[in-house]
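Subject: for your reference before the review

Hello V.,

The reviewers asked for a structural picture of the protein, and I figured it would be easier to keep everything in one thread rather than splitting it across files. Below is the amino acid sequence we used in the manuscript, unchanged from the supplementary table.
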Amino acid sequence: MNCLVPRPAKVTKTAGGATLSDGMVIAAGPGCAEVAGLLAGELEAGAGWRVHRAGANVPETDGDVRLEVDPRLGAEAYRLRTGRGFVEIFGGSAAGVFYGTRALRQLLPVEFFRQARSGPAAPAQVEGLEIDDAPRFGWRGVLVDVARHYFPKYFLLRLVDLMSLHKLNVLHLHLTDDQGWRVQIDRYPRLVEVGAWRRESPAGHQREGRKDGKPHGGFYTKADLAELCAYAARRHVTVVPEIDMPGHMQAAIAAYPELGNSGQPLEVSTDWGISEHVLNMEESTAEFCANVLDEVMELFGSPYVHIGGDECPTAEWEASARAHELIRQRGLAGPRALQGWFTARMAAVAAQAKKTLVCWEEVLDAGAPPGAVIEPWRAETAAGAAERAARQGHRVVMAPEPWCYFDWAYSADPAEPLAIRPAISVEKAYSLQPVPPGLPEELAGNIAGAQCQLWTEYVPSPEHAEYMLWPRACALAEATWSGPEREWADFQARLAGHLERLAATGTNYRPLSGPNPGQARTWQPGRAGSMP
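And here is what came back from the structure prediction:
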């Protein structure tokens, strides 16, 4: 009905309806003023209407759209009614009210998703409806890797808008890796002076061994990230920073060689894949990382901080006499246990700042700190890691291959842009069940939600990133918001209409029929040339 995405829990048709038009009034109850301001701005831009805002504590008879917090509802739940000549939206919190306004926007004409128009739109009729809705999961996330390729701030702000339209609420920023460091750290300026730039990048697929000879890089100032966090918070999106450690740190070692195991100068990696160059496990290195985390946690308002912990090779530790000396001094079992020691140190830093640590599933192998959120991702181990983490009392955010890896191609069609591997269709993404099949029922409550990953080795531009995300992220939104009983045919029908909204916003989404000629890697005669 009405191509609503994600599908609400319950939609009931009622008599009557509502008409919204130029000069309309939004009445905001206590706690709803900011939501009202956002909705007013969107309607003024897209519909060209004058939208008036009544003050707090307005009588119920005022307002064409009435926004109220009803604490009897769940925090993110909302109830929308349109059957008595006006629109009422109740939410369990400001977040719930906001999600109700996202549903309202989808009930209005598609052209209202544009940024401007030449004159006021005609009055919009909204059919009589009652929508009762709430999310199944509290963590509905999108990871964007800005380390492999730097994306300008405007792309992240736009992504927040698109996420919030789909009721996605966690933006996981992968800020650092072997190929680049993207966050300003005042105490260690060389992290961006050196670590934010690489000499060149692979050309074509990594296995081809070619390089493009073009410098690449960039970083976000603290002012940039503060702006992003504030912008996201108004739209009820939490920005979770990831500083990947103790592996995936070659860019940091290039800036500060004393962090490495050889002491020899390195450059920021110009290859994709996993670097063997990892942090040494000296006390001074742990202090360096603690200082970095302190600045990052102060900057981001998120209750979470992510330290990665994935894919950390132990070869340098195994070959290092100093590493073995540290293992003996600390009474550790071997080189792999060094990562557990390090993770425990960072967990203490996070706890001191009253932040919750988030880690990839590999941290379980070295002993995950109590209270950490665990993200299983490997196709062959994700379900087992989820159960293992849940049994240890951890909350779990599912991020498994292949369902959630949106850096993979949509299909094996040669016209698809270069990608790390094939293939995850929209239907495959939609089939994600965040609670792994076979997980004992008593552990299901530990599943906090799920998120998709957009790793960017083969995603060099904002336009390409949008292509890879949408409409697969629409499928993820429904998989995390709506109930477990979902029908692909029903979603497919609604998605076809919903893509008109993405087209109106100018999003470079992938058509369901395949890439258009401007998106395709290879020319194929006869392919439909309609733009998204």
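For the response letter, the relevant points are probably these. Residues 87 and 510 are 34 Å apart (CA to CA). The two ends are 22 Å apart (CA to CA).

Happy to draft the paragraph if you're swamped.

O.
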